[in-house]
Amino acid sequence: MLDILKAVLFGIVEGITEWLPISSTGHMILVEEFVKMNVSEEFWSLFLVVIQLGAIMAVVLLFWSKIGPFGRKKKSGRFYIKTDIIMLWLKILVACVPAAIVGVLFDDKLDELFYNPWCVAIALIVFGIAFIIIENRNKNMTPKITKLKEITWQTAALIGLFQLIAAVFPGTSRSGATIVGALLIGVSRTVAAEFTFFLAIPVMFGASLLKILKFGLAFTGTELVLLVVGMVVAFLVSMLVIRFLMGYIRKHDFKAFGWYRIVLGALVLLYFALK
Question: Residue 58: which domain range?
Fold first, then answer.
C-alpha cells in the first residue's frame, strides 16, 4: 500500500514537470532522494519512463482536433484524411529523428555518464539562464511563426536538434530545450509549446517501448499495479497542467520558469555538496 502511495506521488511529479519547462528528471532525482519505492533498479528505470505514457494520453485527448489525421464530412458522413495534419506529423517525425537515433544507440551510456545530480543541476541552471536571455531578447520582437501550419521542414529540423540536447543531457528538460530552440528561431510561445507537446508523443512512446523491450513483459502483479497507478495519476495531473500552461503563456513569458530552474539547480548543487 505504501508503494502505491509513492507511485501516486511520482505520477503527480511527472504530470506537473513533464510539461512545464522545469525538468522532470531534476525533480525525480530530488523526490527519489527522499522517497524510494521497494522495487528493483531495473523496474525503477522502467517506471520512470513508462508512466510518461499517461502524460502523453492527456496531450492526445486535449489536442486531438489539431493532431487527429482523420475527419468526417457532415453531409455524407464519410471519413477523409486531413493532408495538413499528415504534413504536420511528417515534420514532427523529422524533428524526432536526431533524438531517436541517439536514444537507441547511446541510451544506457548517456545515463551512465550524465544521469547524476551534478549534471542535472548544471543543465537546470544553464537553460534557466537561456530562458531569461531569450525572452529579454524577444521582448520587442514579433514572432515569425504564429501558427502550426507555418512551421517549415527546416524549422522542425532545427527544433529537433534542440530536443537532441535534452536527449543527451538529463535535466535540460525536453520541453525546455525544444521551447528555447523554438523561441530562438522566431516561433511564438503558444506554437512552441504546442509543437513541443506533439513532439513528445512519438518520443515518449518510443522510449517506453524501448524500456519495455529491454525489461521484458515479466511484470509481477505489484509492478503492474504501480505502473498503472503512476500512469493514471500522471494523465489526470497532466490534463490540468497543460491547460494551465496554455492559459499562462498567452499572457506571460517563460522567464518565471527560468528563475525557478536556476533556484532549483542551485538547491540541488547545495544539497548534494553538503550531503
Answer: 2-274
The fraction of the chain above a pLDDT of 90, given in percent, is: 49
What is the C-alpha separation between 35 and 40, in angstroms, rounded? 14
| Planar angle of CA 214, 231, 266, nearest 5 degrees | 85
* Residues 62 and 72: beta-carbon distance below 8 Å: no
State the sign of the Cα–Cα–Cα–Cα dihedral 29, 53, 243, 181. Answer: positive
- The structural domain count of the chain equals 1
DSSP string, 35-55: ---SS-HHHHHHHHHHTHHHH
pTM value? 0.88
Q: In the structure grid, which three cell numbers stand for residue 267, read together?
A: 538547491
DSSP 149: G
Mention every residue, 6+ apart, whose C-beta is less than 8 A from residue 272: 117, 118, 121
Q: Which one-letter amino acid corresponds to residue 6?
A: K
Nearest to 234 by CA among 20, 62, 7: 7
Helix (H, G, I), strand (E, B) or coil at 144: coil
